Amino acid sequence: MKKLAFVLSTLAIGTVTASAADLAPRYTKAPPAPIAVFSWTGCYIGGDVGGGSQRQSASEFTIPVGFGAAPTAVKQDSTAVMGGAYLGCNYQFGSNWVVGIEGDWTATDLKNSATAPNLFLNGLPVGSGGVSYNERVNWLASVRGRLGYAIAPTFLLYVTGGAAWANSDFSGVDAYRGGCPNCSVTGSFNHTATGWVAGGGVEWAPWNNNWIVRAEGLYYSFDGVSAFGTQQGTLAPSTTSWTWGRNEIVEGRVGLSYKFGGPVIARY
Protein backbone atom coordinates (compact mmCIF):
# COMPACT_ATOMS: atom_id res chain seq x y z
CA MET A 1 0.00 0.00 0.00
CA LYS A 2 2.81 2.39 0.80
CA LYS A 3 4.37 1.78 -2.62
CA LEU A 4 1.01 2.34 -4.35
CA ALA A 5 0.46 5.59 -2.48
CA PHE A 6 3.95 6.79 -3.46
CA VAL A 7 3.34 6.07 -7.13
CA LEU A 8 -0.03 7.83 -7.14
CA SER A 9 1.38 10.92 -5.40
CA THR A 10 4.27 11.11 -7.89
CA LEU A 11 1.86 10.95 -10.85
CA ALA A 12 -0.30 13.68 -9.31
CA ILE A 13 2.64 16.03 -8.79
CA GLY A 14 3.79 15.47 -12.41
CA THR A 15 0.30 16.22 -13.74
CA VAL A 16 0.03 19.45 -11.73
CA THR A 17 3.49 20.57 -12.89
CA ALA A 18 2.64 19.90 -16.56
CA SER A 19 -0.66 21.80 -16.25
CA ALA A 20 1.10 24.77 -14.66
CA ALA A 21 3.62 24.78 -17.50
CA ASP A 22 0.80 24.82 -20.06
CA LEU A 23 -0.83 27.75 -18.27
CA ALA A 24 2.41 29.80 -18.03
CA PRO A 25 2.73 32.57 -20.67
CA ARG A 26 5.09 31.89 -23.58
CA TYR A 27 7.47 34.80 -24.22
CA THR A 28 8.70 35.19 -27.84
CA LYS A 29 10.71 37.93 -29.60
CA ALA A 30 8.41 40.65 -31.01
CA PRO A 31 8.64 41.28 -34.79
CA PRO A 32 10.39 44.52 -35.82
CA ALA A 33 8.14 47.53 -36.34
CA PRO A 34 7.44 48.42 -39.99
CA ILE A 35 9.51 51.30 -41.39
CA ALA A 36 8.08 54.19 -43.44
CA VAL A 37 10.05 54.49 -46.71
CA PHE A 38 9.69 57.70 -48.75
CA SER A 39 8.41 57.26 -52.31
CA TRP A 40 8.38 59.81 -55.15
CA THR A 41 5.26 58.22 -56.61
CA GLY A 42 2.27 60.57 -56.51
CA CYS A 43 0.89 63.84 -57.82
CA TYR A 44 1.90 67.26 -56.51
CA ILE A 45 1.23 71.00 -56.78
CA GLY A 46 3.52 73.88 -55.91
CA GLY A 47 4.81 77.38 -56.54
CA ASP A 48 8.18 78.83 -57.53
CA VAL A 49 10.06 82.11 -57.81
CA GLY A 50 13.29 83.06 -59.52
CA GLY A 51 14.82 85.19 -62.22
CA GLY A 52 15.43 85.03 -65.93
CA SER A 53 17.22 86.65 -68.83
CA GLN A 54 16.13 87.10 -72.43
CA ARG A 55 18.07 87.45 -75.67
CA GLN A 56 16.53 88.29 -79.04
CA SER A 57 17.35 90.08 -82.30
CA ALA A 58 15.01 92.33 -84.29
CA SER A 59 15.11 94.00 -87.70
CA GLU A 60 12.99 96.01 -90.14
CA PHE A 61 13.12 97.24 -93.73
CA THR A 62 10.93 99.40 -95.91
CA ILE A 63 9.15 98.12 -99.02
CA PRO A 64 9.91 99.21 -101.68
CA VAL A 65 13.59 99.59 -100.89
CA GLY A 66 13.71 102.54 -103.26
CA PHE A 67 11.81 104.64 -100.72
CA GLY A 68 15.23 105.60 -99.42
CA ALA A 69 15.33 104.06 -95.92
CA ALA A 70 18.06 101.56 -95.09
CA PRO A 71 17.26 98.36 -93.12
CA THR A 72 18.03 98.35 -89.40
CA ALA A 73 18.79 95.59 -86.91
CA VAL A 74 19.20 95.48 -83.11
CA LYS A 75 19.86 93.09 -80.24
CA GLN A 76 17.45 93.02 -77.30
CA ASP A 77 18.43 91.75 -73.85
CA SER A 78 16.64 91.96 -70.51
CA THR A 79 16.48 90.41 -67.05
CA ALA A 80 13.60 90.23 -64.59
CA VAL A 81 12.01 88.42 -61.67
CA MET A 82 9.79 85.46 -62.63
CA GLY A 83 7.39 83.29 -60.65
CA GLY A 84 4.42 81.00 -61.00
CA ALA A 85 2.88 77.61 -60.25
CA TYR A 86 3.39 74.03 -61.32
CA LEU A 87 1.76 70.62 -60.96
CA GLY A 88 2.57 67.10 -62.04
CA CYS A 89 2.74 63.41 -61.27
CA ASN A 90 5.67 61.03 -60.69
CA TYR A 91 6.07 57.27 -60.73
CA GLN A 92 9.02 55.58 -59.03
CA PHE A 93 10.24 52.27 -60.43
CA GLY A 94 13.27 50.02 -60.15
CA SER A 95 13.90 51.34 -56.61
CA ASN A 96 15.68 54.56 -57.68
CA TRP A 97 14.31 55.70 -61.08
CA VAL A 98 11.51 58.26 -61.31
CA VAL A 99 9.52 59.22 -64.42
CA GLY A 100 6.87 61.92 -64.55
CA ILE A 101 5.06 64.69 -66.36
CA GLU A 102 4.68 68.32 -65.30
CA GLY A 103 2.94 71.49 -66.46
CA ASP A 104 3.72 75.03 -65.32
CA TRP A 105 2.75 78.67 -65.82
CA THR A 106 5.14 81.54 -65.12
CA ALA A 107 4.49 85.28 -64.99
CA THR A 108 7.39 87.45 -66.14
CA ASP A 109 8.39 91.09 -66.29
CA LEU A 110 10.87 90.61 -69.15
CA LYS A 111 10.62 93.78 -71.18
CA ASN A 112 13.07 95.60 -73.41
CA SER A 113 13.36 98.33 -75.98
CA ALA A 114 16.07 99.12 -78.50
CA THR A 115 16.67 101.93 -80.96
CA ALA A 116 18.53 102.28 -84.24
CA PRO A 117 19.40 105.35 -86.33
CA ASN A 118 17.43 106.00 -89.48
CA LEU A 119 19.79 105.85 -92.46
CA PHE A 120 19.61 106.36 -96.19
CA LEU A 121 20.37 103.39 -98.45
CA ASN A 122 23.91 104.72 -98.95
CA GLY A 123 24.50 104.54 -95.19
CA LEU A 124 24.38 108.27 -94.52
CA PRO A 125 22.23 109.44 -91.59
CA VAL A 126 18.87 110.92 -92.38
CA GLY A 127 19.51 113.56 -89.76
CA SER A 128 16.25 113.11 -87.90
CA GLY A 129 13.88 110.37 -86.89
CA GLY A 130 14.89 106.86 -85.81
CA VAL A 131 13.69 103.31 -85.31
CA SER A 132 12.47 101.87 -82.00
CA TYR A 133 11.63 98.28 -81.05
CA ASN A 134 9.60 97.30 -77.98
CA GLU A 135 8.68 93.94 -76.51
CA ARG A 136 7.33 92.57 -73.23
CA VAL A 137 7.02 88.88 -72.34
CA ASN A 138 3.87 88.49 -70.25
CA TRP A 139 3.95 84.79 -69.37
CA LEU A 140 5.50 81.42 -70.14
CA ALA A 141 3.90 77.98 -70.01
CA SER A 142 5.20 74.49 -70.64
CA VAL A 143 4.32 70.79 -70.57
CA ARG A 144 7.39 68.68 -69.86
CA GLY A 145 8.44 65.10 -69.28
CA ARG A 146 10.76 64.31 -66.37
CA LEU A 147 13.30 61.56 -65.75
CA GLY A 148 15.09 61.36 -62.42
CA TYR A 149 17.30 59.19 -60.24
CA ALA A 150 17.02 59.12 -56.46
CA ILE A 151 20.59 59.14 -55.17
CA ALA A 152 19.07 58.93 -51.67
CA PRO A 153 15.49 58.05 -50.67
CA THR A 154 14.57 61.75 -50.28
CA PHE A 155 16.99 63.35 -52.78
CA LEU A 156 16.24 63.34 -56.52
CA LEU A 157 18.29 64.50 -59.50
CA TYR A 158 16.32 64.96 -62.73
CA VAL A 159 16.30 66.23 -66.31
CA THR A 160 13.22 67.67 -68.00
CA GLY A 161 12.06 68.85 -71.42
CA GLY A 162 9.02 69.45 -73.58
CA ALA A 163 6.84 71.99 -75.38
CA ALA A 164 6.61 75.64 -74.32
CA TRP A 165 4.67 78.81 -75.11
CA ALA A 166 5.45 82.51 -74.59
CA ASN A 167 2.92 85.34 -74.72
CA SER A 168 4.37 88.77 -75.63
CA ASP A 169 3.37 92.29 -76.65
CA PHE A 170 5.26 93.95 -79.54
CA SER A 171 5.40 97.37 -81.13
CA GLY A 172 7.70 99.24 -83.45
CA VAL A 173 8.05 102.75 -84.90
CA ASP A 174 10.16 103.85 -87.87
CA ALA A 175 10.21 107.65 -87.92
CA TYR A 176 11.39 109.05 -91.26
CA ARG A 177 12.76 112.52 -91.99
CA GLY A 178 10.94 114.96 -89.76
CA GLY A 179 9.57 112.20 -87.52
CA CYS A 180 5.94 111.22 -87.06
CA PRO A 181 3.42 111.54 -88.57
CA ASN A 182 5.94 110.87 -91.34
CA CYS A 183 6.55 107.36 -89.99
CA SER A 184 5.64 103.69 -90.17
CA VAL A 185 4.24 101.93 -87.10
CA THR A 186 3.25 98.38 -86.33
CA GLY A 187 0.84 99.40 -83.64
CA SER A 188 0.86 97.26 -80.51
CA PHE A 189 0.05 93.61 -81.10
CA ASN A 190 0.04 90.47 -79.00
CA HIS A 191 1.46 87.11 -80.06
CA THR A 192 1.83 83.69 -78.42
CA ALA A 193 4.91 81.90 -79.73
CA THR A 194 5.54 78.16 -79.61
CA GLY A 195 8.86 76.53 -78.84
CA TRP A 196 10.61 74.08 -76.58
CA VAL A 197 12.21 73.98 -73.14
CA ALA A 198 14.87 71.78 -71.53
CA GLY A 199 16.66 71.78 -68.21
CA GLY A 200 17.19 69.96 -64.97
CA GLY A 201 17.23 70.27 -61.23
CA VAL A 202 17.24 68.70 -57.80
CA GLU A 203 14.38 67.91 -55.40
CA TRP A 204 14.59 67.17 -51.71
CA ALA A 205 12.08 66.07 -49.09
CA PRO A 206 13.92 67.42 -46.02
CA TRP A 207 11.23 66.42 -43.52
CA ASN A 208 10.70 62.96 -45.02
CA ASN A 209 7.03 63.74 -45.62
CA ASN A 210 4.84 65.31 -48.31
CA TRP A 211 6.66 68.64 -48.62
CA ILE A 212 9.30 68.87 -51.37
CA VAL A 213 11.70 71.72 -52.14
CA ARG A 214 13.43 72.13 -55.50
CA ALA A 215 16.01 74.14 -57.40
CA GLU A 216 15.67 74.14 -61.17
CA GLY A 217 17.19 75.69 -64.29
CA LEU A 218 15.42 75.91 -67.66
CA TYR A 219 16.34 77.06 -71.16
CA TYR A 220 13.50 78.18 -73.49
CA SER A 221 13.64 78.74 -77.25
CA PHE A 222 10.67 80.27 -79.11
CA ASP A 223 9.83 80.98 -82.73
CA GLY A 224 10.11 84.54 -83.97
CA VAL A 225 7.30 86.75 -85.23
CA SER A 226 6.84 89.17 -88.13
CA ALA A 227 4.49 92.08 -88.72
CA PHE A 228 3.90 94.88 -91.23
CA GLY A 229 3.75 98.56 -90.37
CA THR A 230 1.61 100.94 -92.38
CA GLN A 231 3.08 104.21 -93.48
CA GLN A 232 1.57 107.44 -92.25
CA GLY A 233 1.87 111.09 -93.30
CA THR A 234 3.49 110.64 -96.71
CA LEU A 235 2.31 110.17 -100.28
CA ALA A 236 5.03 107.64 -101.13
CA PRO A 237 3.55 104.10 -101.19
CA SER A 238 5.63 102.01 -98.78
CA THR A 239 5.28 99.48 -95.97
CA THR A 240 7.71 98.48 -93.24
CA SER A 241 8.34 94.82 -92.52
CA TRP A 242 9.23 94.09 -88.88
CA THR A 243 10.77 90.86 -87.60
CA TRP A 244 11.56 89.75 -84.07
CA GLY A 245 13.84 86.71 -84.24
CA ARG A 246 14.07 83.57 -82.16
CA ASN A 247 13.51 84.37 -78.50
CA GLU A 248 15.84 82.67 -76.01
CA ILE A 249 15.10 82.76 -72.27
CA VAL A 250 17.09 81.26 -69.41
CA GLU A 251 15.38 80.87 -66.03
CA GLY A 252 16.60 79.79 -62.61
CA ARG A 253 14.08 79.22 -59.83
CA VAL A 254 13.36 77.57 -56.50
CA GLY A 255 10.05 76.01 -55.53
CA LEU A 256 8.04 74.31 -52.82
CA SER A 257 5.39 71.67 -53.54
CA TYR A 258 3.05 69.33 -51.70
CA LYS A 259 2.87 65.69 -52.82
CA PHE A 260 -0.40 63.84 -52.32
CA GLY A 261 0.00 60.37 -50.87
CA GLY A 262 2.21 59.37 -47.97
CA PRO A 263 5.37 57.30 -47.73
CA VAL A 264 5.36 53.56 -48.45
CA ILE A 265 5.22 51.34 -45.34
CA ALA A 266 7.73 48.51 -45.54
CA ARG A 267 6.21 45.16 -44.61
CA TYR A 268 8.12 42.25 -43.10
Report on the architecture of this protein:
It is a single chain. By secondary structure, this protein is mainly β. It is built from 1 helix and 13 strands; from the N terminus they run αβββββββββββββ. About 10% of the residues lie in helices and about 65% in strands. The strands form 2 sheets. Strands 2, 3, 4, 5, 6, 7, 8, 9, 10, 11 and 12 form an 11-stranded antiparallel beta sheet that branches. It has a two-stranded antiparallel ribbon with strand order 1-13. A hairpin with an 8-residue loop joins strand 2 and strand 3 (about 70-95). The longest helix is centred in the N-terminal third of the chain and has 22 residues, at about 1-25.
Concise structural overview:
It is built from one helix and 13 strands; from the N terminus they run H-E-E-E-E-E-E-E-E-E-E-E-E-E.
Please give the structural blueprint.
Layout: H1 2-23, E1 36-37, E2 42-63, E3 72-93, E4 97-116, E5 130-152, E6 155-175, E7 183-185, E8 189-204, E9 211-222, E10 225-232, E11 239-244, E12 247-259, E13 264-265
Antiparallel strand pairs: 1-13, 2-3, 2-11, 2-12, 3-4, 4-5, 5-6, 6-7, 6-8, 7-10, 8-9, 9-12, 10-11
The CATH topology annotation reads as Porin
Total of domains: 1
The poorly predicted ranges are: 1-21
Q: How many helices in DSSP terms? A: 1
Assigned CATH architecture: Beta Barrel
Instruction: Let me know the largest β-sheet.
Output: 11 strands, antiparallel
Element pattern in H and E: HEEEEEEEEEEEEE
Count of distinct strands: 13
